[in-house]
Amino acid sequence: MSDTLLRADIQLIQRILPHRYPFLLVDRVEEIDGTQSALGIKNVTMNEPHFQGHFPGTPIMPGVTIIEAMAQTAAVMVGTALDLADKEMLIYFMAIDKCKFRRKVIPGDQLRMRLTTLRGKPGGKVWKFGGVATVDGDMAAECEFSAMMDLPK
């Protein structure tokens, strides 16, 4: 880990990611160590639209949104480290591998997502990441995924 870790608050996140409500799924990114690793924070609240139907009376955060939150954390990590704020970057999933869900995530939980770069370098378009999402120290989900980061010319 480097001596100076970066952070991204919601204002910087919105300058990096094109996502907006209801699909902006990361509230803060801490401990950004260049393009190597970061810790994303998602505060899960009952007013999120997917809880109306997933499931009525028993709200559970859909697994796909947990994976999307991890991907957004990875994009913010790379975007912060490479100074890509206000560059209108788009990010596309290419693959999701080794995905496992271990615990329900419900309103009131804080999802902590530790992301690590497995492959990718500044100037490269295709990156691969590994991620683990936890709640109160218990693993909720883990996966590896690759994404293409597309900057307009």
UniProtKB/TrEMBL annotation:
Chain ranges passing through the membrane: none
Key words of the record: Cytoplasm, Lipid A biosynthesis, Lipid biosynthesis, Lipid metabolism, Lyase
| Subcellular compartments | Cytoplasm
| Enzyme type, top EC level | lyase
Q: Which InterPro entries match?
A: FabA_FabZ, FabZ, HotDog_dom_sf
Q: Which reaction does it catalyse?
A: a (3R)-hydroxyacyl-[ACP] = a (2E)-enoyl-[ACP] + H2O
State the active site. Answer: H54
Q: Does the keyword tRNA processing apply?
A: no
Q: Does the keyword Lyase apply?
A: yes
Enzyme Commission code(s) on record: 4.2.1.59
Function in brief? Involved in unsaturated fatty acids biosynthesis. Catalyzes the dehydration of short chain beta-hydroxyacyl-ACPs and long chain saturated and unsaturated beta-hydroxyacyl-ACPs.
Family the entry assigns: Belongs to the thioester dehydratase family. FabZ subfamily.
Kindly provide the name given to this protein in its UniProt entry.
3-hydroxyacyl-[acyl-carrier-protein] dehydratase FabZ
Annotated source species: Marivita lacus
Gene name, Swiss-Prot/TrEMBL: fabZ
